[in-house]
Write a structure and sequence with these properties.
This protein is 37% helix and 17% strand. It has nine helices and twelve strands. Helix 1 packs across helix 4, helix 2 crosses helix 4 and helix 5 packs across helix 6. Bound molecules: adenosine-5'-triphosphate. Keywords: ATP-binding, Kinase, Magnesium, Metal-binding, Nucleotide-binding, Serine/threonine-protein kinase, Transferase. This is non-specific serine/threonine protein kinase.
């Protein structure tokens, strides 16, 4: 895995980053091109749908793909973000993640279920988010907003110098991002690898949590399950549920993230303290002259 005692775990150089500041882009969740394609259902789209339905990896997954989801995949193919679909990487409660080929590299395609059973919880996570102020309570709108939220969160995190899968595109309930892994398969979760240098890994995690917080985001589900280890780098994944600091429960989420991370590294033999981690994450950057 290329991890040695002097590994830096890929800490992104802050020189390449910028703190996004207090400005939050408004996110449009109105009807997408995929909805229009699904309504129109031209011949080419029907052929694409049949072809994908026949593919082995989708046979057992058909419940995820309603017409509009097929249309979203079709649009992403038409726009050149996806060229060929591979097998599933994960089948989760709210989304399935597939391996695919993009225009010049491998990508991960995350397909959120419109019928996600926990959409009310999704709605709650969007509370207070300045990017979704006018969002109503309709199931479809919530899931579409959620998908755009994950894309926007990935962009914001990347901008702030946090190593995350590079966001590529989203269409309706489908998100395309950099594939984290290699020819042997998806990158392993932190909990699945032997960490040779937990001190450095913990330092990098702390720094990423602080950068995320400085960018106004709290992951909200951070643990060894949502950090993967790729070619000597720690990569934070699953930023869909990440909330902005405006969320009424943002402090609780951050405390929980700190507890999970501190507890994981304490199991790696380190002397960690969740309160100290919280203090570190919420303290201002130590070096104001970094620009
Ligand atoms: N960009 C990626 N590259 C490679 N594998 C990925 C990528 N994103 C996600 N995965 C794989 O898919 C799994 C699920 O992804 P993620 O946590 O984002 O979705 P989820 O639906 O929230 O999952 P869960 O319900 O298990 O929390 C990850 O644990 C990882 O194995």
């Amino acid at each position: 895995m290329g991890q040695g005692p002097d590994t830096e775990y890929g800490l992104v150089d802050l020189e390449e980053a910028e703190t996004p500041g207090d400005e939050w882009e408004e996110i449009d969740v109105s009807d997408t091109e995929a909805d229009r394609i699904a309504r129109k259902r031209d011949r080419e789209f029907n052929q694409f749908q049949e072809r994908i339905k026949d593919a082995d990896q989708f046979k057992v997954e058909q419940s995820v793909f309603d017409d509009a989801t097929f249309a979203a995949l079709y649009k992403l193919v038409q726009d050149g973000y996806v060229e060929a679909f591979g097998g599933p990487l994960s089948t989760g409660k709210e989304a399935n993640v597939y391996h695919a080929l993009g225009d010049d590299r491998e990508v991960a395609v995350k397909v959120y279920r419109i019928n996600a059973s926990n959409f009310r919880q999704m709605r709650d996570y969007l509370e207070g988010d300045p990017r979704f102020e006018g969002l109503g309570g309709k199931k479809k709108d919530v899931v579409l907003a959620w998908t755009k939220k994950e894309l926007a969160n990935l962009r914001r995190a990347k901008k702030a110098g946090v190593r995350v899968p590079e966001p590529i595109a989203s269409e309706r309930n489908v998100l395309v991002m950099e594939y984290i892994g290699n020819e042997d398969g998806r990158a392993k979760r932190l909990g699945e690898v032997q960490i040779e240098n937990p001190e450095t890994a913990y330092r990098v995690m702390r720094e990423y949590m602080r950068r995320l917080y400085s960018a106004g985001l709290i992951h909200g589900d951070l643990s060894e399950y949502n950090v993967v280890f790729d070619e000597g780098q720690l990569v934070l994944i699953d930023l869909g549920q990440a909330v902005t600091v405006h969320h009424p429960n943002s402090c609780d989420f951050l405390e929980r993230d700190c507890e999970n991370v501190a507890s994981f590294f304490s199991r790696q033999g380190m002397d960690t303290d969740p309160d100290e981690l919280l203090e570190f994450v919420t303290s201002p950057e130590p070096d104001p002259s970094r620009d």
